[in-house]
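INFO batch 0412 | record 1 of 1 | parsing
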Amino acid sequence: MKKRDEKKPVIRMFLLGLVALSLLLTIVPRAKTVYDLNKQKANLEQQKDELTQQNAQLIETMKNVNSPENIEKIAREQLGLVKKGETVIIPMLPDESSPAAQ
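INFO prediction complete | emitting tokens
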């Protein structure tokens, strides 16, 4: 009878160890997944903040692009247009082969 009493604590410890091991094998991968998802969430929130700022800047740029002043500036600088009564002055670059350029 003493041998049965001595085996019971060993069997209980063995079963407890198996239960603990099975819990570890199921909890650890889940905990790693939660950690990875939290890290990914933080990265995505940071990207969202950056994109929100970029969007605000683009909206401000769009407001400026459609302004009459900007349209006139583009017409003058890029298209070479002038208002009625204005004289166009075209700057001349010196010719590299001429002696005055040297």
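INFO post-check: The two ends are 117 Å apart (CA to CA).
INFO record closed
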